[in-house]
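Quick question about two entries, pasted in order.
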Amino acid sequence: MEYKRQLHNCSGERLEKLKTQMSYRLDEGRGSCVYRIGVEDDGCHSLLDYKACKETAKTLELLARSLNAVVLELKMIQGEVKKNDDGKPVKLDGTAEEVVVPSMFGNGKDLSQNDFDDEHEEKVETDGNLPKELKIDSGVYTRAEMTFQRIETHLLDPSPVSLSKIGKENAKADIASKPKEPANSVADALSKRNIRVAVVGNVDAGKSTMIGTLTSSLLDDGRGSSRTSIMKHRHEIESGRTSTSSTHLMGFRSTGEAIGAKDNVRVNRRKTEDEVAKESYRVISLMDLAGHEKYLKTTIHGVASGMADYALILVNSRHNPTHMTHHHLNLCVSFGIQVIIVFTKIDGCPDHAFKTSKSEVTKLLKAPDIGKMPFEIKSEQDIEKVMGKMNTLAPMITTSCVTGQGMDLLQKMLFALPKRRKHEKKVERPFEFLVEDIFNVPGVGSVVSGFVNAGQLSVGSNAHVYVGPTDDGTFIKTVAKSAHIARISTNHVTCGQNACLALALSKDLRKKLRRGMVVLKESASSTKEFEAEICVLKGVGTTIRKSYQAYVHILNVRQSAYARKIEIVKAVPGIPSSHTAQYGEDNEVVLRPGSRAKVRFEFAQRPEYIRPGMRMLFRDGRVRGVGLVTAIPTVDPVR
């Protein structure tokens, strides 16, 4: 229960505080709360008229919509107080009238328009939508009661059709006369229509600036304003170097129009991820990865566990591509990720410098270890030509985040990209959630964030799950209490979504959580050994033999492992004999660049949850090879 006297011409800062307060009341009431308008803190009547109550109710409902809540009931109460002959208010007994009025936005109109203009108010009052019992005269003292209810994620469609289903049957006739638009289901937008794009490049290529410009639709000022808005740590802002992996949402409407960052309620702030997700028909998840060689292992883990559909390889137009650019290209191609070359900082770049940079990138793409044919994008027709041919072609786009050159073309390119990873085909598989990060939220408990790799889960008191493996290889049985996707509360998560799960764990069990774990619906087994068919990448000289130690990346799992057994695989048609492992001294198998073999690895520290079919990568400083997990030694399930 919350009391409000009146809300009139609130500033952006005031609205933010009111929104936080309403969010607390909704959580306190387990998804519902009641607001009383025109009432003092001590319960006395505030002596407001109908117009003042109506304005306050509009503001509260607008805030409720931004919190994924709707108005279940709005009652106007009149006849409790009136003026006597001396002009003083007098309380009346037994004469109060309660009138239920329709929700202010019950017709499903776009909330981005100005809902406080005089023309709109006059239309509502003269259309006959208000009950006849309601008195709108200025001298009639009025107070109101509003009941709010938080709704589920699959009802988050901001279109008129979705809003009409939430207890507003009287709006159906008005909706039927309007042209139908594609449904903006947040669950589908964040799974079936979510394209995951890794953004990699050298340290001075402008990756964070590019992501900041794309997500906000605002140009950079040339001094780092775009990158500052998305960086997570203070040292990143001060140095301008990204040291951690982070994901940022870019939304598109069904027409291909990018959703900007301007907030209609809080004009000085950007839209949050949940607001972008609610408005979007298609979502592009841009993964900002570190470019400095110092943070190479972070970038490798981001590519290995990011489930990327595509990769943007950013190249500074003013400098030749470095060895890190070559390494990033090799990394993405090794994982089968299709690449798009983006030349940045074209504004003020000398023609000869850009020509040299472009020719060097072309050489890299045509190299045997990359094997891509460059294709320059200059118009929308070029985008149509390259679609479906990106296995062999590498589109190249020239951009500037300061002048905006090429940015529209890049946005259209991102919107036109088809989704490559069909996670919706894995709905029938057992639930599998890959843990990428761990949080301890006051009042909530242990929260794990990550990616739903397979299956689906409905959270609640009966949602029993298994988290693990722990250091001894066992799984912890617990309950998934609640879930969030894109900071939106939901009771159902499905494969293809990035989500957060709140787990019911004691303080002792919380200490056992770590990155690289999985959340499963059924009990499973862990293992310290696995077999994989690998291919050693060409490039710097590498010799691999028995007892070779490397750092292994298998999706979200990363740990040191030893090569315990190496076998030469059978000859594969079409692969030259030079790609086969050779025997060295003492007749032991030796792997060199280009070799293919079946290797049994053993983790050095603790058992992990892996299964056949997972893609792996191993490195010892630099990436040395890639492979596919083919078999797991038989282990009894751990209960």
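Here is the second entry:
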Amino acid sequence: AFEVEMALEAIRYRDGKLALLDQRLLPHEMVYVDVRGAEDAKEAIASMAVRGAPAIAIAAVLAMAVELHEVQHENVEGTVQHVKEMATKLVEARPTAVNLSHACDAMVKAAEETAGEEGADPSSIRQRVSALAKDMLAEDVRCNREIGRVGAKAIAESVRVPEALNVLTHCNTGSLATAGYGTALGVIRSLYEEGKLKNAVCTETRPYGQGARLTAFELVHDGIPATLIADSAAAALMSQGKVNAVVVGADRIAENGDTANKIGTLSLAVMAKYYGIPFFVAAPVSSIDTTMASGKEIEIEERSPEELTHFKGARVVVENINVWNPAFDVTPSDLVTGIITEVGLISKPQSSARFGIRDFLVSKGTIPDVGPPSLETAHAALDEASLKQYLSSHSSLAAMLGGSPVEWSIREIGDGNINFVFVVKGPDGGLVVKQGLPYVRSIGNSWPLSCDRLRYEAHYLRRHRECYPDHVPEVHLLDEAMGLIVMQYIAPPHIVLRKGITTGRIFPKLAKQMGKFLANAAFKTSLIGNRTAVHREQVLFYNRNIPMFKITEDLVFTEPYMEADHNWWTSPQLDEEALFMRTDPELKLAISNLKRKFCEQTQALIHGDLHTGSLMVTKESAWIIDAEFAMYGPIGFDVGAFLGNLLLGYFAQEGHRSLDNDRSSVKHWLLSCVSDTWAFFEEEFRRLWDTDGANGDAFSPKLFGSDALKASAQRLFLQEVLQDALGFAGAKMARRIVGLAHVEDFKSIADAELRAACERRALHCAWQLLKKHHKVTNMEEVVTLAKSC
């Protein structure tokens, strides 16, 4: 062993030799043990002789460098393979810690890149990986000091009290858990150095006692005033006002901010939330895993039961008791105030429960702002075998399905024009997997399209699930690299609404469900319900969904009114109608004004393609799906898209009538649904405005204090939304008849003459809505118009 020195240095690397401080012996002994390679490092990590996410990553790469110099290969291939084998072995020691996998991946990448250089030999690879390992060691210390600086500022600004602070921390995140200084404990060190710390509170951190054995040791060593408490005493201390802030470390942070850390962290976060205490996570950027959408994907390892049942080798617990001893827990992002990193504080936009982690990292240049993939480099389409392999590699998804992959059934059900959709069923449940390839599904490679569209769909679904969870499925995983999302399976008897309408079914609760959903989705993402800063930040994010925005702009507002390759209609029956749309000046002026409004307005987060094919329904429930066109746009656009598709269903009924069913009851319900949806929307929007309007900046209560003035503002605003919605309804109806992507309502009418007659009536209604929507004052006029066409 190395000579013992009284210094808080968890990792010593001198002249190509590595020694690790055996933290199991602290605080009574300081003993360094030699590490001669990956096997020794794996044992040290697994036994917790070395611990802390940053420290184990640095220890691992230094051990790889040591072993590579001891076991020298004669050729490049053998050297690279050796690096890969060591990396695999070390990652297995602590799968929860993303720092470890990132560091090992970097070592493998460095070896492979060096091997590909001209004149490469085993020596050049050894030199490259050794240099990288030493750079990681130095960089970790630099990052930790910057985390301390950023965190001290963030906590001081969050608490805003004149006196010095009492800050609580959990587990050990100091010099012993890193290459030096620490993450969360580094923040406390910085506060102390700046004269802003009154007392540091450390929990004992059962069952392994890292707080009692290690953090307390570091605090006393540095002369920082500190108090040790039992884990179970934290709530009592908070209740007495003796904790101003909490700062903890992290082993892995998911893209949404969910944080895996030492068991007990979640309890502290819940208590801090209850007592209104800021709760911060301090970790290097390397702890953030943007490949994981949420904490549900994080693998939680379990420790030996003996950590609970034994003390110093002697059993202290009765025999035959079951033990659950997870090493970590996951704290949901909505309990986290901010994430402190070496490149800055990741905070939530005002009034938002979500972190914009990926955008933050892109803005700091930490990860690339990846553009649309090329057809040559994009991922391949999934098939049954590859999809099973993919799902089985994600333990949480596999657990939802149950059983083994051989028991899973997979069916591709995508009937849309853009993406592929798979339903996967297992013994315990089902999942929906949606994959976007780098082209439009219905067209093929001749129409390239960014796979990034599913990123926006996932964010839309998550945001609106917060707004109105009863109608939006849960997103379990967003995998941007694969261009897919995995989400909640909406099981039978749910069917696609369009199919239900086409087959003559009635859904009596639909108008109320959709009216209230549309109102909540619009209000809660608009400036009437949000602050300007939040709104602008969200607009900036969704404005990058340019390819999908352009599709709508072209297919809805442009191509049906000109000669275009994608246009088609029931010909020759509708040739005159198609010609009229390409030549009528009044129609072109109307659609252009609507296009301008669509392109310019960013009123709320809209679905962008909300039609009867993007709803799964029963008589009791309705679920919104297929939101890849999500963007900030006019509130009336989604409302109009839904109403317009109901009207298409209404006009198609004549083509589906039979001797025993004239479809009159369905037609009556559809028109009632059109008017009732708006009535419920208007009622719910007014209610939200009355109760939550003070949260928004658009109509400040300071300006609209009187009830009469506020009512007037509501009336004018909603009248504008109604007129916009009817104009957009007409645009959506017309494009489904003479443009690309027709609807099953009409396509399923086999007789071309009958189909054309139904489509002609729908077109005439659409034209009237396009030209006269700005004159409509109520929905009765719309119902009358539909009946007259």
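Reply: The chain has 26 helices and 28 strands. Confidence is low (pLDDT under 50) at residues 1-7, 369-378. Hope that helps.
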